[in-house]
Amino acid sequence: MSLLVEIEKLLEEGKGAIKNAASAETLENVRVAYLGRSGKIKEMMGRIREVANEEKKAFGQGMNDLKKSLEKLFDEQKNILGSSKAKSGPQPDPTLPGQSQPRGSRHPLTQVTEHVVKVFERLGFTIADGPEMEDEFHNFVALNIPDEHPAREDQDTFGLDNGTILRSQTSTVQIRTMEKIQPPVRVIAPGRVYRPDAVDATHFYSFGQIEGLAVDTDITFADLKSVLGMFAREMFGSDTKTRFRPSFFPFTEPSAEVDVTCIFCHGKGCRVCKQQGWIEILGCGMVDPNVFKSVGYDPEAWTGFAFGMGVERVAMLTLGVDDIRRFTENDLRFLRQF
Amino acid sequence: MNLSYNWLKELVDLDLKPQELADKLTHAGCAIEEIVQVGDDWQLVAEVTTNRPDWLCHWGAAHEIAAILGKKTNLPEIKINETGPDVNSLAKVTNTAKDCCPRYTARVIKGVTIKESPEWLKKKLTAIGLRPINNVVDVTNYVLMEMNQPLHSFDYDLLEGSQINVRMANNGEVMEALDGTECKLNEKMLVIADGKKPVAIAGVMGGSSSEVTEKTKNILLESAYFEQKQVRRTSRALKLASDSSYRYERGIDPGNLERASARACQLILEVAGGELATGVIDDNPELGTPWDVTMRYCRCEKILGVRVEKDEIEKIFLGLGLQILNKTDDEITVKVPSFRQDLTREIDLIEEVIRVAGYDRVPETITMRVGMSHKTKAESAKDIVREVLAGLGYFECVTDTFVPEKWLEAFGCVGTPVRVLNPVNAKRPMLRTSMVPSLLEVARINREEEDVRLFEIARTYTGGGSNSETMQLAILDSRGLPFVRGALEEVVKNLRAEVELGYTEPENPPVMQDGSALLISFNKDTVGCMGVVKDEQAKMHDLRLSPAVCQVDFGKLAELPRLTKVYKPLPRFPAIGRDIALVVPEEVKWSRIEEIVRKDSENMESVIFQSVYRGKGIDAGKKSVAFGMTFRMADRSMTDDEGNKLRDDVVCRLTAAISQAALR
Question: Which CATH superfamily is domain A108-335 in?
Answer without folding.
Answer: Bira Bifunctional Protein; Domain 2 (3.30.930.10)
